[in-house]
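Recap from last week: sequence in, structure out.
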Amino acid sequence: MAMIRDNRWAAVAAGLIGAAGVGLAAAASHAGGEALLRPASTICLAHAPALLALSLAGERLRLSGLGALGMTLGTALFAGDLVARHFAGTGLFPMAAPTGGMTLIASWLLLAVGAAMSRRS
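Predicted structure tokens:
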């Protein structure tokens, strides 16, 4: 539980997910992966800055660690499934992308709830 409260790991995840997003954008542009790689890139590049912000927010924002964890897992599932479909011809497992998408939505809602709660003293 201490790892979730110490959000430095989210900065590492942000860097890795951001790098993956740039790489996927390049692959989509140069390797013909528009249909699957472009959306995977977009998801990565949208959530990497959010993860970086959550790592900087630390305990000032309630539930930020859980939100960051959900965003990391959701991004990995959603983008990972699209990448697997492109390169391997099959997804990670049935409903992986929708599960990742729902995890991302839940994580954003969790952050909204955390932000609406009173700050810790």
